[in-house]
């Protein structure tokens, strides 16, 4: 079953209409909130506001794409989760159920961990992972749709 509705959204100087479709039959899973949830939201909003000021971006889709493609201040994932996933990937047991953005993020984390491991082979994996996820990330590992939803929630507050 599909439900459609129109909304009018205003972000700073840009107003646009959007038609949203919600698939009510889709199973929703509750995901654990990251301990970096608020920090990620502040960073995302900061980058979004910078994208709004760019003269070359006129469409909201372009602004959202530029926002998620901008480097993030860190990898927004908990240390415990990152260590678990990196250990699984290093043991060649990565999950096939992982979402594409998550897979992309963990692939980058694993790549960096392997590079650090070559430099410091005696260092524990936990410490290497903690060091990597505190580094700037090459992008926000969010879809434009997810960024839109997060920004709408921030705006409601």
> Mind describing the biggest β-sheet?
2 strands, antiparallel
Strand order of the largest sheet: 1-2
User: Helix- and strand-based class?
Assistant: alpha+beta
Q: Give the overall shape, derived from the CA principal axes.
A: elongated
**Percentage of residues in helical conformation:** 40-55%
How is this fold's topology laid out?
Elements: E1 2-11, E2 14-23, H1 37-53, H2 60-69, H3 79-90, H4 100-119, H5 125-133, H6 144-156
Antiparallel strand pairs: 1-2
Helix pairs in contact: 1-2, 2-6, 3-4, 3-5, 4-5
Structure description:
The chain is α+β, with helices and mostly antiparallel strands and 157 residues long. It contains 6 helices and 2 strands, in the order ββαααααα. It has helices at 37-53, 60-69, 79-90, 100-119, 125-133, 144-156; strands at 2-11, 14-23. It has a two-stranded antiparallel sheet. A hairpin with a 2-residue loop joins strand 1 (2-11) and strand 2. The longest helix has 20 residues, at 100-119.
List keywords for this structure.
13% strand, disordered N terminus, alpha+beta, 157 residues, two-stranded antiparallel sheet
Quick recap:
The protein is of the alpha+beta class and 157 residues long.
């Amino acid at each position: 079953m599909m439900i459609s509705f129109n909304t009018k959204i205003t972000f700073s100087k840009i107003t646009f209409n959007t038609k949203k479709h919600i698939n009510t039959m889709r199973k929703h899973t509750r995901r654990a909130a990251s301990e970096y949830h608020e920090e990620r939201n502040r960073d995302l909003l900061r980058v979004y506001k910078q994208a709004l000021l760019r003269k070359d971006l006129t469409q909201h889709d372009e602004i959202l794409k530029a926002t998620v493609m901008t480097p993030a201040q860190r990898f927004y994932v908990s240390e415990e989760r990152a260590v678990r996933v990196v250990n699984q990937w290093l043991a060649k047991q990565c999950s096939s159920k992982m979402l594409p953005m998550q897979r992309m993020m963990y692939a980058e984390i694993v790549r960096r961990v392997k590079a650090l491991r070559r430099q410091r082979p005696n260092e524990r994996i936990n410490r290497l992972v903690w060091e990597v996820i505190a580094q700037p990330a090459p992008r926000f590992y969010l879809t434009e749709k997810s960024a839109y939803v997060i920004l709408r929630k921030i705006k409601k507050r």
